[in-house]
Structure formats: structure tokens, C-alpha cells
Amino acid sequence: MKLTVPHMGNCYIAFEALLQEMGHEVILPPTCSKKTLSLGTKYSPETICLPMKINVGNYIEAIQLGAEGIVMIGGSGPCRLGYFAQVQKEILKDLGLDVELIVLEPAREGLKNLKDQILRLAQPKGIGSLWRGLRLAWEKQKAVELLENAACYVRPREKQLGITSRVLQASLANIRQANSIASLRRICREEQARILDLANHSPVQPLKVGLIGEIYTILESFTNLNLEERLGHLGVQVTREVSVLRWVRDHIFLSPFASYRIKRLVKQTDGYLNSWVGGHGLESVASTIQLAKADYNGIVHIMPFTCMPEIIAQSVLTKVSADLQIPILFLIVDEHTGEAGYQTRLEAFVDLLQRKQKEFQHEKATSLFGC
Question: Could you give the angle at the alpha carbon of 288 between the alpha carbons of 49 and 254, nearest 5°?
């Protein structure tokens, strides 16, 4: 079957490897663009969140290229991800686009449904292809995240402005072409060294900022207007607190044990949030507290307009910011977000962090030398 998956950052590399190993032809939608957003906005409910609108645009573009089926992740709880499949199916049906939706629901929603969908995907080449595909996909996603993290480290230190992002794209293309775990690991080591070699050796340490919030807007650079790159060019080392690997591990493989993970996260929030609120809301609060304790300079919290879990997190984070004296920049994105105002807010936030750091260093020197 000719299958497609929606874009969410670079995780398409892993999903493509998985589906190809199971014997499917993968038709990826074009990279997210204004056309994608325009299509999704036109046919989606006006008040639905930005990720779903872009997903709809992805599906329409992929179907126009010949896709016969769509593979997507399901969800539950206050996050509207759990409703995406049903709504998107009706939208495509109304447009006369007859495609099959294969929804991989979290295991806590019922192992039988997840098992049936996986067996359906593995049908062309048998269950053995599933395990081979999962292993290769897992290793590819590990490589992708390793290189992305290396790029976040190098950008504020790069010798030539903008070169890190260009090299990263070439490195990811090489990861995508790898067809065995042995060659993949070799390529990953080579590409990581290539990216790290782009950094200068200045003794001046850049500002450290944690990136938290809703997973799609963190990972998809079109949605967040290349947030990591913009911050890197402003001299900020970004630590991404959301990972596809962790999401798959926690919400697919370890989903039946979610209560233990939630208890651990609640404990990490130090009483600011006492229950799961859906999406990554609880993780956003827990991560902010841990990053503040690790002496990060600031936090950027990003979410789509109307995202319910992150709205709850935002209300709590305002108090966390005041209590722990860590600046937080709240970014809310939708189809109307403009680059000019966005860049201005980032620059103002970085200026604030730089002033705060200088004041801290001055106070430290004063207390040390008594002057």
C-alpha cells in the first residue's frame, strides 16, 4: 500500500524506514509550507489547533501525490489529538478523498486495537518485518535527535553564521539514506563530528535556555518559525525538553504504566501541579522546575493557540517563574503568527537574559571582593 505520514519535524525519517521495512511504498507530503497551511486552514474547523490544520494540509498534498493510506498516532485525555482521526476522516470524505486511516492508539486505550493495526501494517512481509523496521526506525530517530542536539550546542558558537543548519540538513539526508544499523551508526558518528567541528573555541559561554511546551510546535520548524535556529543566532544554547523517542516510549510501549510516570512528574513539580492535565502540560511544569534548579538562564514555552493542556501549564508557570526567579517567554502560534513581531519578542527576551546575567555576575564579584 502507498502510505503517508504527517510531518512533525524530522521524525518522518524514522517512520519512513519503519514502513518501508514492512513492505509499503512511502509517499511523504512536501515539506510544510504556506500552501500546506492554507489548505489545512481552509478545510479544518476554525477553532481547532494549528497542528491539526497543518496535518490536514499534509494529507491533502500527499493524496495528490498518490497516497492511499495515512498512518497517524492517536491520543486521549484533554488534548484534542484523540479527536484528530475522526475529524480528519470526515474532512477528507467531504472532499471526495477516499483513503484509509490507520491510527495507532496508545496501549492504555486497548491493546487489541493497537495490535490489530500493527498486524495490518505488517501484513505485506510478516511480523518479522515489524521488529526489523522498529529497530531501524528507533536507531534512525536516535541519530536524528543526537544530530539536532549537536546543532543546538553549536549554533551559538558557530564560526560562520547559518552554516550549522545547512550542514545539519545534509547530515539528516545521509541518515535517511542509511539502510542498515551498522552503516547508520557509522554515519551518525561522522556527521556528529562534522557538526561539532563547526564550533569555535571561545571561552565565553552562551546563555542556556530550555524549550518546553506542546510537542508539535516544538519539533516542527515551519510551525515555530525556526525557533531553535533564531535563538541560536542570538547566542543562545537551546535544550529541547521534548523528544519523539521519549514520547513513543512513554505513550506507546509503556502506556499501561502511565500512572507511575505521572506520579514521578507530579513529584517533580514540587506541589505546583498535582495531576495530569493532558498533552505535555505536566511535563512543561516539571521541566521548568528542574531547569531552574540546573541554573538555566531562561525558559521558552511554546504552544498552539487554544491548546488546553498548555494553557493550564502556562497559568502555573507564571507563579513558578516568580517564585524561582527564572524568566519565561510564552509563545502562542497559529496561522496568523507573523515573523516580525515574533523576532522582536525573541530579541527582547535575550536582551533581558543578558542583563540579568550581567547583574548576577556583578553581584557575585561584589560579594567576592567586598567592593
Answer: 70
Q: How far is the first Cα of the chain from the last one, in angstroms, to the nearest whole number?
A: 74
Pick the CATH number of 2-125 from 1.10.10, 3.40.50, 1.10.1200, 1.10.287: 3.40.50
pLDDT in tens, 181-230: 999 999 999 999 999 999 998 888 999 999 999 999 999 999 999 999 99
Domain spans of the chain, in order of start: 2-125, 138-204, 205-371
Query: In 3-state terms, what secondary structure has residue 178?
Result: coil
The answer, as to whether pTM is greater than 0.85, is yes
Tens-place pLDDT, residues 31-75 = 999 999 999 999 999 999 999 999 999 999 999 999 999 999 887
User: Helix %, strand %, coil % for the chain, to 5?
Assistant: 60, 10, 30
> How far is the CA of 19 from the CAs of 5, 105, 247, 369, in angstroms?
10, 17, 19, 63
d(C-alpha 84, C-alpha 51), whole Å: 10
CATH assignment, 205-371: 3.40.50.11900
